[in-house]
Each structure stands twice: as C-alpha cells, then as structure tokens.
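## tool: complex_structure
## caller: assistant
## args:
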Amino acid sequence: MVRVLLPLPVVLPLFTAALSILVARHQKVQRAMSVLTLLAVLASAGMLLHIADTDGTAVVQLGGWAAPAGISLVADRLSALLLLVSSAVLLAVLLYAIGQGVADGRRSTLAVFHPCYLVLAAGISMAFLTGDLFNLFVAFEVMLVASYVLLTLDGGKAQVRAGMTYVVVSLLSSTLFVTVVGFVYAATGTVNLADAADRMADLPAGVRLALGLTLLVVFGIKAAIFPLFSWLPDSYPTAPSPVTAVFAGLLTKVGVYAIIRTQTLLFPGDEAIAAVLLVLAVLTMVVGILGALVQDDLKRLLSFTIVSHIGYMLLGLGLYSAAGLAGAILYTVHHIVVQTTLFLVAGLMERREGTSSIARGGGLQRVAPLLGVLYLLPALSLAGIPPLSGFLAKLGLMQAGLADGGALAATAVGAAVLTSLLTLYAMGRVWSEVFWGPVAEVVPDADATDRIDVGTERTPRLMLGATVLAVIGGLAITLIAGPLYALSARAADDLVDRSTYVDAVLVAEEDR
Amino acid sequence: MTGNLTLALTIGVLYTVGTYLLLQRTLTRVVIGLGLLAHGANLLLLQAGGPAGGVPFSTKDGGGTVGVDGGTADPLPQAMVLTAIVITFGVTAFLLALAYRSWVLTGEDEVQDDVEDRRVARLSHEHHEAPRPVRPEDEL
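## result:
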C-alpha cells in the first residue's frame, strides 16, 4: 500500500504533465487532467498523513536499493502534514487560475501553464518526501525550473527583468547547494539524510558548524531570510496573480522545511547555529515588516510580509525545543494557507480596481462588500488577532520562547510582538486606503501584470469560489487548531528524538 | 582521503573567475560566470568521491575495495555529477533565452536596476534638485 502511495505525489503529476503537453490543443481536457491529478495527490497526501500518524514513519526504498546506497522516500508526520496542506493550496490556486484563464481567454500561454504547474507540484511533493540530500537538490531544481517558466509566462519587460534576477539568484543558490553536497559527501561519505545524521556526530565540531551554516545559507536564499531576501519582493509581484499566490504560499515554505529538516536531523541542538537562527529570526521579522510599511503596491507589500513572517518559523526552530518546533510547524501550516489567500484576494482587488496601487484605490467596501470580508479575515489572521489561526500559532511560539528563559529568546519574542503590531498596521493601511474613503474612479493600470479586463463587474465565479474556499480553509485551521497543534507537537517530538526518522529509514523492513 | 592537487587548483580558479564574472553588469558575463561556477561545483563533487580507481572491467585486478588502488572508483558522485550537469545545462539554456528576450525588448545587455533602487535614486535626486527652502536669515 505504502509502496504505491508514497511515490504517487511525485510520479503522478510528472506523468500527467507529459500527457498534458500532448493534449495542449484541448484546453478542457488539460484542465480536467490537472484538477483530477491534484485531487489524487491530495487524497494520497491525506492517507499518508493518516499512516504516518498511526503506524509511524512510512519509508519506500526506490528501485529496491537499501537505504544508504539507494534513494529513500520518507513520509513522517511533518512532511506528510506539509504535503497535505500544500496540495490543498495547489488545488485551490489551480481552480482560481482556470477561472481567470477562462475569463481572459489567453490560449497560447495557458497551454504551457498546466504542464508547468504540474511539474511544480511534483517538485514540491518530492522536496517534502525525499530522504536524500542530493535528491532534495533535484527536487528543488524540478520545482525551480517550473517556477522560472511560470514567472516569465507573459514574457513582457517587467517579467523578463524580474525573471532574470530570480533565475540568477536561484541558480547561484543551486550551485552552492551542489558544493555543500560535495562537502557533505567528502566529510561523511553519504548523502542519505538518516545515514549522515549518524555519521555527522563523529566529525570535528568546526567542520560540522561549517556544513550547518553553509546549508543554512543555501536554504536561506530559497526561504528568503534576512539578508538573503531582496530578490523576493522584486520578482514575485510581476507574475500573474495565481502564480504569485502559489509561489508566496509554497516555495519559501519548502525552503523553511529544508532548513528545519536538515538542522534538526544533521546538527541537533548546536548552540552556535541556534543563536544564529534566533538573531536571523529577529532581523528577518523586523526588517521584512519595515519594508512592507512603506510599499504602495499591494503585491509588493504582501511580498514583504512573506519575508517578515518567515522569521516566526526561524524563531521556533532557533529555540530548538519540542514546543518551539511545534509552534513553528503550526505557523508554517497557517502561513501557507493565509498568505496564498491574501494574494488571491489581491488578484481579485486588482481586477476590480484596475491597479494594485494602494493610493489609487478607494471605496471598494461599498462597491464590493464581499471582497472586504474576504480580505479582512486572512489579513487579521496574518496579524494575529484572536481567535484566528495566526493568533494561535503565534501564541504557541511565544509561550515556547518565554519558556526557554534565555535573553536572546526573550528578545525574539519581543520582536515577534512588535512585528505582529506592525503587520496589523500594514494590513489596516490597505483597508483604510482601498476599502474606505470615496469610491475611486477605475483607471486601468498601464503595466497591469495580469493583462485582465480591469475594472469590470465581471469576476468569474470560479475565481471567487476558489478564494472563498481558501478563506474557509484558513478559518478551518482555527476550528481544528486543538487536534492540529497536538499533531504538530507529535511531529516536533519526532524531530527532537531523531531515532524515529533514522531507524525508519536505515533498519530494513523485515528487521523491524 | 587523498585529493588531486591539479583538480583542486582548477576548482579554485573556476570558483574565482565565476564569482568575478557573476558580479559584472553585463548579462552575458553573468551567464558565463554561472556556467563556470557550476563546472567548479561539479568538479568538487567529483573530487569528493575520492581518488580515481582502476578500469571498471579489468581482468587483471578486478575486485578490491572502492576507492583503493586497483579497485573501481566510487560511482555515486559520478552519477550525481551527471545529474547536476544535465540540470545546469537546461537552466543555462533557459537563462540564455531569457537574456536574448531581454535584449530584444530593451536593446541592451545590461542588468536593469532594481525597482526599489530606482525609486530611492529618484527620491534622492529630487531631494537634491529641489530649491532650498527660504530661511528667515535669507531675507535679511
């Protein structure tokens, strides 16, 4: 059962992507294929989470080669949970994109959209499921190559300029990744994460610290932590809304997942790295949100909030306690859903107003009250207003931070509170400029990124439906926060007690 | 583990030149720089696999331990390098296409300024160009 279920989220989207290119002329077939594939991935992710939570970590050795030599796919509680959330988000954004595509009728680019989107889904699934450092590199590349194409889909001036920055920065971090893989192989003689976790303990402390910090830089670029984030607010906003939404929700979180996985498994409780992580968490939170405060473009503003809130996840990891990690996991789940939702709503607002400039908007609340509700719920959740999911996740992190007792942890908690307040201010500024005030006249933006019928009453039902679905998903996290936090805590316990993961991968099935 | 000095020096040179080219403003140089960096990284991965072994299918002294004289070389890093080469090749091709598209659209081969940079530059420019506010002592 597991042998089929575990590779499915990777293999199925890749296979359908190939088929999807073949039927590029039949858009309805393409759409149906994409939706069905992601539904299947969602179902298998759900079953994997159930298996990982009840029967323990699920492992498949690809091609029948035993662990250290072959490639292992591993689904423990953390990866299965993130896989489930990400496939749900991918599905919601796909529906939104289909709605927008149907309304705008851009045939040529849409033919490429579906295959690329499926490859992106496969890359994200593989990054979550792999138990091998080099395979993680391949997963990142699969995901990034698809994202390069999606980002530059329109091929306009702005997209090419942003794409250039994005591709060069990503390629540099990939080269650095290959370098680190070489270092790890030279030092330990393995790239299997579980095997390396065992052997890493025998290395001299200096070598271990160097490897840990270099891996942090590699994944820090992908996760957009301070000071490696400047490419993000510059490139994300130029893509079409659904593409930005899925990048914002998922790509940086894959980087965060990779940081959590490698740091907890390979360099457990290294005090120097933990201190570095806490300092970076504070700087990422504060610098990110200060950037968001001065932006006029809604999408750029939201991009800066991504950067800022990555800091919360680092804070949880830097504490390196079960409670801190549980908070970080819950925060990641919450942030994936809420940030994606906000970008989807921003797309709808831009469609209505003809611009994503905050200053040029106004009075939207009178024209489109539903949009107001859809914006306000995730925005307040992002800022951490009780009883929404952001509040619960932040509460978990802050309690863990204060329980730590250290001065650095206390400072980080203070910075987290400050960032929450500033987020509320940034979100409130959007509300008062765009939704309140006199109704602004719709002037189509000269360089609108979506090439859409701006300022029309016509919002396709599917786009609106997908956004409502995403908002409800965010509210659902609040409702099931109790069981979800318990699950995060169990996942965090697995991370702290590494033997669960290592034994599952290295001890052959018949010996267990 | 013993290393190969020539290989180590080559890797060093590739990283140095690659980094230098990456810092240039011309897109073509950036692309070439990334290519050199990737070559350096691939060689480093190869070097990580230890010394080269004997011929894989040799009748004379087949067998032996991996990496030891007479035995075969460690195949794992070579497999990884092959994968990395293919990936770099694909991405570099895409980057070249993007650079060409940029040249078609803007007519120049230079990296455009960051949006934020331009905004800051404009602000500071306006600040300097603006006439100095009239102070009370000026009127005396």
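## assistant note: The CA atoms of residues 388 and 475 of chain A lie 7 Å apart. The first strand of chain A starts at residue 58 and ends at 61. Handing back to user.
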